[in-house]
Structures are given as structure tokens and as C-alpha cells.
Design a protein that fits this description.
Number of domains: 1
Strand content: over 45%
CATH architecture: 4-Layer Sandwich
CATH class: Alpha Beta
Number of helices: 4
CATH topology: Double-stranded beta-helix
Helix content: 10-25%
Number of strands: 18
Order of helices and strands: EEEEEEHEEEEEHEEEEEHEEH
Shape: globular
CATH superfamily: Mitochondrial biogenesis AIM24
Amino acid sequence: MSTDNSQETPQNNTSSADPRGFKFEMAGQPDYGFVTVHLPAGEKLKVEASAMATMDTNIRMKTKMRGGLGRLITGENVFINEFSAENFTGEIGIAPGAPGDLRHLYLDNDTIYLQNSAFVACGFDVEIESKWQGLTKGFFSGENLFLIRAMGTGDLWFNSYGAIIEIDVTEDYVVDTGNIVGFTSGLEYKVSKVGGYKSLFFSGEGFVCRFSGQGKVWIQTRSTAAFVSWANWFRPSK
């Protein structure tokens, strides 16, 4: 009698969240999300610049500008790549830059707001643009004044730093600004201090976002600011 000590590790998780969208497989979650999209002949996919990892030989790419002034000010890439499959279905593998989770939504004439670096890819009929938050609401990516608005109909993929947790908000909910990935358009929000000024500078907790209304919020289990603070202790000193 032989014994197989090998363990099966799931490599892909085929999503069938909405039959109206593209077929795709997820892998590497929640640490290093990777998605392979099956692009039908003649269809197009918008992908964040530098996120393409693999593609079939019948896939063609065009680069276009997007985001305007907001993308220039925030330092985010002002270019987006459009991939199309010629003659027959082709596969494209997409790897986000940040180590973390990857999430898919099918928008049905919906609007989702994302932190400025969270966008990964979307269908051609989903519009992606930078939205000015105003001086009092700018909080994403370290109190950023812009966020990304994704609206329309089609597939949308976004990523995080760390794993993604989806939260249903029915009344009021408070999230640290560094842990927000995105939220639905039905929610109102305002930014405030979590405590007094002493807490603001010495507690390690800065600003929080207070959501109200009904909708969904996606949070990430890690904060880049918290990681930088932790890693700073290990910097070599003279």
C-alpha cells in the first residue's frame, strides 16, 4: 500500500459571480492576488499600466492617457493600457503592484469609489476617472485629495495592501483612513480625528472616516503608513 503525502493546494478560484462578465480565474489570494482573464474575440479590457504579466500572442495593446490633472498631481500613472483579442479568445494575466488581495465586482450601471492606487482592470464600458474630494475630505493614500470613480456596466477588478474585507454598512461606521480600499456611491462620509490633538500626534491613530447611510465598504488588513512606521525601527543608523 502506497501513501501519498502530498497536499493539494488550490491554485485558482474560478469566479461565476455574474454570467454577464468575462470568464476569469483568481490565484495567489489573499497575499499576492493574480487574475487571468479570458478575453473574447473583439472585446477590450482596460488595465492599469505595468500590471500585465502574461498574454496570448493574439492579444494587442494600445496605451492611452487617463485621469487628467488628478493623476498628475497624485503621482499615479496617467496612462492606461487597452488590450483586445483578435480573431479568437485570448488570455491575459494581470498582476497588481502591491502585495495583497484582489477583488472582482460586476457593475450594473453602478458607481464605486476606490483609493487612488486600487484600480487594476475593467471592461471597456466601465469609465475610470479621478475625482476631486475637496480639501476637507482628502484622505486616501495618506490624505490624498483625489480618489478613483469607476462607473458604468462591466467587470471591475481592484486590489489592496493586505487582504480585503467587505463590510455592509447600514447606519454609521468608522474606518481608519489608511485601511480603506473603496466604497459604494450610496454612502456619505466625513473625515475627523479619532481623539484630541495629543492622540492625533502620539497615539499612532490619525484621521478616521465616518461613513453613514447604506452601502458597502471594502477595507484592507494592512496600512502602508503603519508598515512604514514599523519598518523604520529596522533602518540602519550611523
